[in-house]
Amino acid sequence: MDSSRSAWSMVTPMLLFSCFCLLVGDILFGYDTGSFGGILANPISIISCQTIYAETREYSIDSLHTSLLTSLAFIGKFVGCLFAGPAIENYGHRMVFFGLSIISVIGIIIEMTSAGSKSGSGRIVQFIVGRIVVYISVGLVEVNVTIYQSEIVPAFFRGFVVLSLQLFLTVGSILASVLNKVFSTSTDSVGWKTITGIQFVFPVLIVVFTFFIPTSPRWLLSKDRNEEAVISLRRLRPKVDTTNGNCEAEISSIRESLQQDVHKTSWFDLIRGTNLRRTMIVIVYYFFQQATGQVFVSTYSVVFYKTNGYAEDAFTYSLMTSCLGFLAVLPAMYTVDRLGRRSSLMISFFLQTLWLFILSGIGDKGDKSSAEKNAVVAVFMLFSVSYNMGGASIPYLIGAEVPNAAVREKTQAIGTSWNVLWAFVTNFALPYMINSIHFGVGWVFGSLALLGLLFTFFFLPETKGRSLEDIDAVFSVPFSPFRSSNPEVAWRCRPIEGKPHFHESI
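== Major facilitator superfamily (MFS) profile domain-containing protein ==
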């Protein structure tokens, strides 16, 4: 095998910028989720349902309205995810980035104008509408960023780049946790309006960054704009490749490998041939992403701590949990391209199961000692670490790389929409579950994490290091976890995936 140039030589400043700059959209999602958790935990919130409890004379949000406030926003995300696929196919990634930024700004304005300056003056319906609109942009971001990244990044570090989505989500959550802590004692509208208004920064940055990124060469090929695809690729490749004709060769190689899959096809093709298995894998992992208890960490951590005897340190613990989750993503971004998707997911699901079962076992005890209370907090944080190690982010990677090119956007749209439906279910149900079975929710979510482990072992083939086009060959044969792949069997890595000088024979 001739390897006159290293794979890393294909990484240019423009490629790195294009891969990471638009992840500020994911900061918006993490920030909104985390900041709203703080608003829910503040009994004097200006957007409360105006229910006054006689004993305390304070405004409070009951379980029904808490569920509505958190879950109805996912209607917007469902719409955004579902329409993201067709929007990207027709208008391209860059136009979708512009559009979602405008939608986000409109939603934030609706949120901030939903209340006056007096306690109990909040128009809760308007605030919910604002959250729904903001979450339309969140859904568009979730699909658009992952697909764009997967189509421009070399195969050898595609996992690293796509998993960075979870890193930026966690950054947003940490920022929200800090501001929640700062304004946790606020008695007027300044606190929540400041926290909400900061969201304006993210769509503005998206608009600015979008002017500088190139259009995806693969998307241009789907529109038969071959010359423009070459020009776009030249912006992502090193200068030497723009002068020696490598970019033209790469575009020709991709088009030849895709053959009949160059152009986008209908929704029906999601369930035709090998696409059925690929679509089902994407859908299942987006289900597990929501069904293993992530809402515990993302939205209800402060509420959970406060309702289980940790009120004094609830905001501090939530911030610590967010920081630990952030640290867990960093090694995960590396190991997903070294250990692979299968091993990373199985480790994550196993640890999630372990911590959730321990959480329930200790938490259900009536009189807990100081050590046992500390253990509950520690296990809760360890669950966050384990979830962010794989179960949180790898579903985005699977959704971006497993589908066939002809239906990639549609598959990701269906998968993320399905994900949103379960996010709605878990966000709506969890307040009632916490009130009724308390720590017993760990038995429920832990069992689902165990199912995720089993599904990964029996049904998920390994795709690390494969170009997007070569993944088609992975799914052309049945998968068996008991049949080891032959390490001597190689495949031709196409230039677009960052290995232009590798020529391997089968």
